[in-house]
Amino acid sequence: MISFEPTPEQDALRQRIESFVMEQIVPYEKDPRNTSHGPTEELRIELNALAREAGLFAPHVPQEWGGLGLDHVSMAIAFEVSGLSPLGPIAMHCAAPDEGNMNLLDKVATEAQKQRWLKPFAAGEFRSCFSMTEPWGAGADPSELKTKARYDGEDFVVSGVKWLITGAQGAGFTIIFCDVEAEGDKPGGPTMLISDMDADGINLTRQIETLDRSFTGGHWEVTFDHLRIPAENVLGEVGEGFRYVQVRLAPARLTHCMRWLGGAVRAQGIALDYARKREAFGKPIGRHGEIGAMLAENEMELQQSRLMIWWACALLDKGEHGRHESSMVKTAVSEALFRVADRCVQVLGGMGVTGDTVVEQIFRETRAFRIYDGPSEVHKWAISRRIMKG
Protein backbone atom coordinates (compact mmCIF):
# COMPACT_ATOMS: atom_id res chain seq x y z
CA MET A 1 0.00 0.00 0.00
CA ILE A 2 1.28 3.46 -0.93
CA SER A 3 1.40 5.98 1.92
CA PHE A 4 0.86 9.65 1.16
CA GLU A 5 1.94 10.75 4.63
CA PRO A 6 5.54 11.99 4.89
CA THR A 7 7.74 10.45 7.55
CA PRO A 8 9.05 12.69 10.35
CA GLU A 9 12.45 12.66 8.62
CA GLN A 10 10.93 13.72 5.29
CA ASP A 11 8.93 16.48 6.94
CA ALA A 12 12.02 17.77 8.74
CA LEU A 13 13.92 17.79 5.42
CA ARG A 14 11.05 19.68 3.79
CA GLN A 15 11.13 22.33 6.50
CA ARG A 16 14.92 22.72 6.26
CA ILE A 17 14.81 23.20 2.49
CA GLU A 18 11.82 25.54 2.61
CA SER A 19 13.57 27.78 5.14
CA PHE A 20 16.80 27.69 3.13
CA VAL A 21 15.12 28.59 -0.17
CA MET A 22 12.81 31.29 1.17
CA GLU A 23 15.37 32.95 3.44
CA GLN A 24 18.63 32.58 1.53
CA ILE A 25 17.80 31.99 -2.14
CA VAL A 26 14.70 34.08 -2.87
CA PRO A 27 16.63 37.36 -2.26
CA TYR A 28 18.86 36.46 -5.23
CA GLU A 29 15.91 36.49 -7.66
CA LYS A 30 16.49 40.22 -8.31
CA ASP A 31 20.26 39.83 -8.56
CA PRO A 32 21.51 41.28 -11.89
CA ARG A 33 23.38 38.02 -12.47
CA ASN A 34 19.98 36.31 -12.78
CA THR A 35 19.65 37.21 -16.45
CA SER A 36 17.08 36.70 -19.19
CA HIS A 37 19.12 33.64 -20.22
CA GLY A 38 19.29 32.19 -16.72
CA PRO A 39 21.66 32.67 -13.80
CA THR A 40 25.30 33.25 -14.66
CA GLU A 41 28.01 30.77 -13.80
CA GLU A 42 29.26 33.12 -11.11
CA LEU A 43 25.82 33.18 -9.48
CA ARG A 44 25.45 29.40 -9.74
CA ILE A 45 28.74 28.84 -7.92
CA GLU A 46 27.76 31.30 -5.19
CA LEU A 47 24.39 29.61 -4.69
CA ASN A 48 25.98 26.16 -4.67
CA ALA A 49 28.22 27.27 -1.81
CA LEU A 50 25.16 28.28 0.22
CA ALA A 51 23.53 24.87 -0.35
CA ARG A 52 26.71 23.05 0.64
CA GLU A 53 26.95 25.08 3.83
CA ALA A 54 23.31 24.20 4.61
CA GLY A 55 23.94 20.49 3.97
CA LEU A 56 21.42 20.46 1.11
CA PHE A 57 23.66 20.04 -1.93
CA ALA A 58 22.82 17.34 -4.53
CA PRO A 59 19.97 15.62 -2.66
CA HIS A 60 19.41 13.12 -5.49
CA VAL A 61 23.02 12.02 -5.92
CA PRO A 62 24.07 8.67 -4.37
CA GLN A 63 26.12 9.09 -1.22
CA GLU A 64 29.17 7.50 -2.85
CA TRP A 65 29.35 10.57 -5.11
CA GLY A 66 28.79 13.06 -2.30
CA GLY A 67 25.02 13.52 -2.39
CA LEU A 68 22.24 12.86 0.11
CA GLY A 69 21.14 9.65 -1.66
CA LEU A 70 17.40 10.27 -1.24
CA ASP A 71 14.81 7.76 -2.43
CA HIS A 72 12.32 8.96 -5.04
CA VAL A 73 9.50 9.90 -2.65
CA SER A 74 11.93 11.88 -0.52
CA MET A 75 13.25 13.49 -3.70
CA ALA A 76 9.69 14.52 -4.60
CA ILE A 77 9.35 16.30 -1.26
CA ALA A 78 12.80 17.90 -1.46
CA PHE A 79 12.53 18.95 -5.11
CA GLU A 80 9.10 20.51 -4.59
CA VAL A 81 10.31 22.89 -1.90
CA SER A 82 13.53 23.57 -3.84
CA GLY A 83 11.25 24.79 -6.64
CA LEU A 84 9.69 27.50 -4.46
CA SER A 85 12.25 29.68 -6.23
CA PRO A 86 13.44 29.17 -9.81
CA LEU A 87 16.92 29.49 -8.31
CA GLY A 88 16.37 26.80 -5.67
CA PRO A 89 17.20 23.80 -7.89
CA ILE A 90 20.20 25.69 -9.28
CA ALA A 91 21.53 26.25 -5.75
CA MET A 92 20.96 22.62 -4.71
CA HIS A 93 22.47 21.25 -7.95
CA CYS A 94 19.29 19.37 -8.82
CA ALA A 95 18.14 21.41 -11.83
CA ALA A 96 17.75 20.19 -15.39
CA PRO A 97 19.63 19.10 -17.42
CA ASP A 98 22.27 18.28 -14.81
CA GLU A 99 20.04 16.19 -12.54
CA GLY A 100 18.97 13.93 -15.43
CA ASN A 101 22.53 13.58 -16.72
CA MET A 102 23.80 12.60 -13.25
CA ASN A 103 21.19 9.87 -13.07
CA LEU A 104 22.08 8.62 -16.56
CA LEU A 105 25.81 8.50 -15.84
CA ASP A 106 25.23 6.75 -12.52
CA LYS A 107 23.10 4.09 -14.24
CA VAL A 108 25.02 3.58 -17.50
CA ALA A 109 28.58 4.96 -17.42
CA THR A 110 31.68 2.83 -16.97
CA GLU A 111 33.72 3.24 -13.81
CA ALA A 112 36.35 5.19 -15.75
CA GLN A 113 33.68 7.52 -17.15
CA LYS A 114 32.23 8.05 -13.69
CA GLN A 115 35.62 9.01 -12.32
CA ARG A 116 36.31 11.38 -15.23
CA TRP A 117 32.91 13.06 -15.47
CA LEU A 118 30.39 12.04 -12.81
CA LYS A 119 32.59 12.52 -9.74
CA PRO A 120 33.57 16.18 -10.39
CA PHE A 121 30.20 16.88 -11.98
CA ALA A 122 28.28 15.69 -8.92
CA ALA A 123 30.54 17.87 -6.80
CA GLY A 124 29.49 20.92 -8.82
CA GLU A 125 32.89 21.55 -10.39
CA PHE A 126 31.16 22.01 -13.75
CA ARG A 127 27.77 21.70 -15.45
CA SER A 128 26.62 19.57 -18.37
CA CYS A 129 24.25 19.59 -21.30
CA PHE A 130 22.29 16.93 -23.20
CA SER A 131 22.44 17.23 -26.98
CA MET A 132 19.40 15.45 -28.39
CA THR A 133 16.89 17.91 -29.90
CA GLU A 134 17.43 18.97 -33.52
CA PRO A 135 15.89 21.78 -35.62
CA TRP A 136 14.35 19.40 -38.17
CA GLY A 137 15.04 16.02 -36.64
CA ALA A 138 15.04 14.37 -33.24
CA GLY A 139 12.88 15.93 -30.56
CA ALA A 140 9.54 14.56 -29.46
CA ASP A 141 10.34 11.69 -31.84
CA PRO A 142 13.98 10.78 -31.09
CA SER A 143 14.03 8.26 -33.94
CA GLU A 144 14.37 11.14 -36.44
CA LEU A 145 18.07 11.59 -35.76
CA LYS A 146 19.88 13.69 -38.34
CA THR A 147 23.16 14.01 -36.42
CA LYS A 148 25.48 11.25 -37.68
CA ALA A 149 28.63 9.61 -36.40
CA ARG A 150 30.98 7.55 -38.56
CA TYR A 151 33.85 5.29 -37.60
CA ASP A 152 37.37 6.55 -38.17
CA GLY A 153 39.83 4.03 -36.80
CA GLU A 154 39.13 3.73 -33.07
CA ASP A 155 37.30 7.05 -33.01
CA PHE A 156 33.90 8.39 -34.00
CA VAL A 157 33.52 11.55 -36.09
CA VAL A 158 30.26 13.40 -35.39
CA SER A 159 28.55 15.95 -37.64
CA GLY A 160 25.17 17.62 -37.26
CA VAL A 161 23.19 20.40 -35.64
CA LYS A 162 21.35 20.37 -32.31
CA TRP A 163 19.21 23.14 -30.89
CA LEU A 164 17.46 24.12 -27.68
CA ILE A 165 20.45 22.61 -25.91
CA THR A 166 19.98 23.80 -22.35
CA GLY A 167 23.07 24.98 -20.51
CA ALA A 168 25.43 24.57 -23.48
CA GLN A 169 27.31 27.77 -22.76
CA GLY A 170 29.77 27.11 -19.95
CA ALA A 171 29.06 23.37 -19.70
CA GLY A 172 31.99 21.08 -18.98
CA PHE A 173 30.76 18.22 -21.16
CA THR A 174 27.84 17.09 -23.28
CA ILE A 175 26.10 13.79 -23.92
CA ILE A 176 25.38 13.58 -27.65
CA PHE A 177 22.53 11.46 -29.01
CA CYS A 178 23.43 10.54 -32.60
CA ASP A 179 23.07 7.86 -35.25
CA VAL A 180 26.22 5.77 -35.75
CA GLU A 181 26.72 4.48 -39.28
CA ALA A 182 27.55 0.75 -39.22
CA GLU A 183 30.79 -0.24 -40.90
CA GLY A 184 31.72 -3.85 -41.66
CA ASP A 185 31.35 -5.82 -38.44
CA LYS A 186 31.15 -2.63 -36.38
CA PRO A 187 27.61 -1.98 -35.11
CA GLY A 188 25.53 1.12 -35.81
CA GLY A 189 22.32 2.75 -34.66
CA PRO A 190 21.23 5.37 -32.13
CA THR A 191 24.06 5.93 -29.66
CA MET A 192 25.12 8.23 -26.86
CA LEU A 193 28.63 9.68 -26.91
CA ILE A 194 30.30 11.90 -24.31
CA SER A 195 32.50 14.85 -25.24
CA ASP A 196 34.20 17.68 -23.39
CA MET A 197 32.56 20.92 -24.54
CA ASP A 198 35.90 22.60 -25.30
CA ALA A 199 36.75 19.95 -27.94
CA ASP A 200 37.57 21.05 -31.46
CA GLY A 201 34.47 20.66 -33.63
CA ILE A 202 31.87 21.94 -31.14
CA ASN A 203 30.57 25.38 -32.03
CA LEU A 204 27.91 27.37 -30.16
CA THR A 205 26.29 28.97 -33.19
CA ARG A 206 23.29 30.78 -31.75
CA GLN A 207 21.79 31.64 -28.37
CA ILE A 208 18.03 31.18 -28.63
CA GLU A 209 15.50 33.57 -27.13
CA THR A 210 12.89 31.56 -25.21
CA LEU A 211 9.95 32.05 -22.85
CA ASP A 212 11.76 30.52 -19.90
CA ARG A 213 14.79 31.95 -18.08
CA SER A 214 15.58 29.62 -15.21
CA PHE A 215 18.36 27.47 -16.72
CA THR A 216 22.03 28.33 -16.26
CA GLY A 217 23.64 28.97 -19.64
CA GLY A 218 20.36 29.47 -21.49
CA HIS A 219 19.42 27.52 -24.63
CA TRP A 220 21.70 27.19 -27.65
CA GLU A 221 22.01 25.91 -31.18
CA VAL A 222 25.13 23.74 -31.30
CA THR A 223 26.94 22.58 -34.44
CA PHE A 224 29.14 19.48 -34.45
CA ASP A 225 31.64 19.89 -37.28
CA HIS A 226 33.64 16.67 -37.65
CA LEU A 227 33.89 16.33 -33.89
CA ARG A 228 36.26 13.49 -32.99
CA ILE A 229 35.29 11.32 -30.02
CA PRO A 230 37.34 8.31 -28.85
CA ALA A 231 35.65 4.92 -28.52
CA GLU A 232 36.06 4.91 -24.72
CA ASN A 233 33.58 7.81 -24.62
CA VAL A 234 30.65 5.70 -25.79
CA LEU A 235 28.00 5.83 -23.06
CA GLY A 236 26.74 2.28 -22.71
CA GLU A 237 26.78 0.41 -26.02
CA VAL A 238 26.60 1.45 -29.67
CA GLY A 239 23.05 1.08 -31.00
CA GLU A 240 21.37 1.12 -27.55
CA GLY A 241 20.61 4.84 -27.44
CA PHE A 242 16.83 4.50 -27.36
CA ARG A 243 17.04 2.36 -24.24
CA TYR A 244 19.27 4.89 -22.50
CA VAL A 245 17.02 7.77 -23.53
CA GLN A 246 14.25 6.19 -21.46
CA VAL A 247 16.66 5.64 -18.54
CA ARG A 248 17.20 9.38 -18.57
CA LEU A 249 13.84 10.82 -19.61
CA ALA A 250 11.35 8.76 -17.59
CA PRO A 251 12.65 9.90 -14.15
CA ALA A 252 13.49 13.38 -15.51
CA ARG A 253 9.85 13.97 -16.45
CA LEU A 254 8.92 13.38 -12.82
CA THR A 255 11.64 15.64 -11.43
CA HIS A 256 10.45 18.46 -13.70
CA CYS A 257 6.99 17.94 -12.19
CA MET A 258 8.42 18.09 -8.67
CA ARG A 259 10.32 21.34 -9.22
CA TRP A 260 7.53 23.20 -11.01
CA LEU A 261 4.99 22.04 -8.45
CA GLY A 262 7.03 24.08 -5.99
CA GLY A 263 6.89 27.07 -8.34
CA ALA A 264 3.11 26.79 -8.63
CA VAL A 265 2.80 26.52 -4.84
CA ARG A 266 4.80 29.76 -4.55
CA ALA A 267 2.55 31.47 -7.12
CA GLN A 268 -0.56 30.32 -5.26
CA GLY A 269 0.81 31.70 -1.99
CA ILE A 270 1.45 35.09 -3.58
CA ALA A 271 -2.01 35.14 -5.17
CA LEU A 272 -3.66 34.18 -1.87
CA ASP A 273 -1.84 36.89 0.04
CA TYR A 274 -2.88 39.45 -2.57
CA ALA A 275 -6.51 38.24 -2.55
CA ARG A 276 -6.67 38.68 1.22
CA LYS A 277 -5.30 42.25 1.16
CA ARG A 278 -6.59 43.77 -2.08
CA GLU A 279 -10.06 45.19 -1.74
CA ALA A 280 -12.63 45.88 -4.45
CA PHE A 281 -16.33 46.61 -4.19
CA GLY A 282 -16.19 46.78 -0.43
CA LYS A 283 -14.32 43.58 0.49
CA PRO A 284 -11.13 41.58 -0.16
CA ILE A 285 -11.19 40.24 -3.71
CA GLY A 286 -10.76 36.67 -2.43
CA ARG A 287 -14.23 37.01 -0.89
CA HIS A 288 -15.75 37.50 -4.33
CA GLY A 289 -17.03 34.28 -5.80
CA GLU A 290 -15.04 34.16 -9.05
CA ILE A 291 -11.71 34.89 -7.39
CA GLY A 292 -12.40 32.49 -4.54
CA ALA A 293 -13.31 29.76 -7.03
CA MET A 294 -10.05 30.21 -8.93
CA LEU A 295 -8.03 29.94 -5.74
CA ALA A 296 -10.00 26.84 -4.70
CA GLU A 297 -9.39 25.22 -8.10
CA ASN A 298 -5.71 25.93 -7.70
CA GLU A 299 -5.62 24.29 -4.30
CA MET A 300 -7.29 21.15 -5.64
CA GLU A 301 -4.99 20.88 -8.66
CA LEU A 302 -1.87 21.40 -6.58
CA GLN A 303 -2.85 18.56 -4.26
CA GLN A 304 -3.86 16.30 -7.15
CA SER A 305 -0.49 16.96 -8.82
CA ARG A 306 1.38 16.21 -5.61
CA LEU A 307 -0.45 12.91 -5.13
CA MET A 308 0.23 11.85 -8.74
CA ILE A 309 3.92 12.58 -8.35
CA TRP A 310 4.15 10.69 -5.05
CA TRP A 311 2.26 7.75 -6.57
CA ALA A 312 4.70 7.49 -9.47
CA CYS A 313 7.71 7.90 -7.16
CA ALA A 314 6.44 5.21 -4.79
CA LEU A 315 6.13 2.83 -7.73
CA LEU A 316 9.65 3.76 -8.85
CA ASP A 317 11.03 3.00 -5.39
CA LYS A 318 9.31 -0.40 -5.56
CA GLY A 319 10.78 -1.08 -9.01
CA GLU A 320 7.34 -1.06 -10.63
CA HIS A 321 7.39 2.29 -12.40
CA GLY A 322 7.68 2.60 -16.18
CA ARG A 323 7.73 5.23 -18.88
CA HIS A 324 3.94 5.10 -19.33
CA GLU A 325 3.34 6.23 -15.76
CA SER A 326 5.83 9.07 -16.17
CA SER A 327 4.09 10.11 -19.41
CA MET A 328 0.74 10.28 -17.62
CA VAL A 329 2.11 12.23 -14.68
CA LYS A 330 4.14 14.63 -16.82
CA THR A 331 1.16 15.41 -19.03
CA ALA A 332 -1.41 15.80 -16.27
CA VAL A 333 0.86 17.77 -13.96
CA SER A 334 2.31 20.13 -16.58
CA GLU A 335 -1.19 21.02 -17.79
CA ALA A 336 -2.50 21.46 -14.24
CA LEU A 337 0.41 23.63 -13.11
CA PHE A 338 0.01 25.89 -16.12
CA ARG A 339 -3.65 26.37 -15.23
CA VAL A 340 -2.64 27.18 -11.66
CA ALA A 341 -0.08 29.75 -12.79
CA ASP A 342 -2.53 31.25 -15.26
CA ARG A 343 -5.17 31.71 -12.56
CA CYS A 344 -2.60 33.30 -10.27
CA VAL A 345 -1.77 35.86 -12.94
CA GLN A 346 -5.50 36.56 -13.31
CA VAL A 347 -6.01 36.97 -9.56
CA LEU A 348 -3.13 39.45 -9.41
CA GLY A 349 -4.57 41.44 -12.30
CA GLY A 350 -2.21 44.13 -13.56
CA MET A 351 0.47 43.11 -11.09
CA GLY A 352 0.38 39.59 -12.52
CA VAL A 353 1.81 40.68 -15.86
CA THR A 354 4.67 42.64 -14.30
CA GLY A 355 7.99 41.58 -12.85
CA ASP A 356 6.98 42.90 -9.43
CA THR A 357 6.38 39.30 -8.33
CA VAL A 358 7.86 36.00 -9.48
CA VAL A 359 4.41 34.84 -10.66
CA GLU A 360 4.99 36.23 -14.15
CA GLN A 361 8.15 34.11 -14.52
CA ILE A 362 6.48 31.00 -13.10
CA PHE A 363 3.67 31.46 -15.64
CA ARG A 364 6.19 31.56 -18.50
CA GLU A 365 8.19 28.64 -17.15
CA THR A 366 5.16 26.38 -16.73
CA ARG A 367 4.02 27.24 -20.25
CA ALA A 368 7.34 25.99 -21.58
CA PHE A 369 7.07 22.91 -19.33
CA ARG A 370 4.08 21.71 -21.40
CA ILE A 371 6.52 21.24 -24.31
CA TYR A 372 9.93 20.15 -23.06
CA ASP A 373 10.53 16.49 -22.21
CA GLY A 374 7.74 15.72 -24.68
CA PRO A 375 4.71 17.88 -25.57
CA SER A 376 1.45 16.84 -23.93
CA GLU A 377 0.03 15.78 -27.29
CA VAL A 378 2.86 13.30 -27.90
CA HIS A 379 2.44 11.77 -24.45
CA LYS A 380 -1.32 11.47 -24.98
CA TRP A 381 -0.70 9.75 -28.32
CA ALA A 382 1.69 7.28 -26.65
CA ILE A 383 -0.78 6.62 -23.83
CA SER A 384 -3.63 6.06 -26.29
CA ARG A 385 -1.54 3.56 -28.28
CA ARG A 386 -0.89 1.60 -25.12
CA ILE A 387 -4.48 1.49 -23.88
CA MET A 388 -5.85 0.67 -27.35
CA LYS A 389 -3.88 -2.58 -27.27
CA GLY A 390 -6.33 -3.78 -24.62
TrEMBL record:
Cofactor: FAD
EC number, UniProt record: 1.3.1.108
A biological process term (GO) from this entry: fatty acid beta-oxidation using acyl-CoA dehydrogenase
GO cellular component term, pick one: cytoplasm
Highest taxon listed in the record's lineage: Bacteria
Segments forming domain Acyl-CoA oxidase/dehydrogenase middle: 129-210
InterPro entries per the UniProt record, alphabetical: Acyl-CoA_dehydrogenase, Acyl-CoA_Oxase/DH_mid-dom, Acyl-CoA_Oxase/DH_mid-dom_sf, AcylCo_DH-like_C, AcylCo_DH/oxidase_C, AcylCoA_DH/ox_N, AcylCoA_DH/ox_N_sf, AcylCoA_DH/oxidase_NM_dom_sf
Stretches assigned to the Acyl-CoA dehydrogenase/oxidase N-terminal domain: 7-125
Alphabetized GO MF terms: acyl-CoA dehydrogenase activity; flavin adenine dinucleotide binding
Keyword Oxidoreductase part of the UniProt annotation: yes
Keywords for the protein's UniProt record, in alphabetical order: FAD, Flavoprotein, Oxidoreductase
Domain spans labelled Acyl-CoA dehydrogenase/oxidase C-terminal: 239-387
Entry similarity comment: Belongs to the acyl-CoA dehydrogenase family.
Assembly and oligomerization: Homodimer.
Protein name per its UniProtKB record: Caffeyl-CoA reductase-Etf complex subunit CarC
Annotated organism of origin: Antarctobacter heliothermus
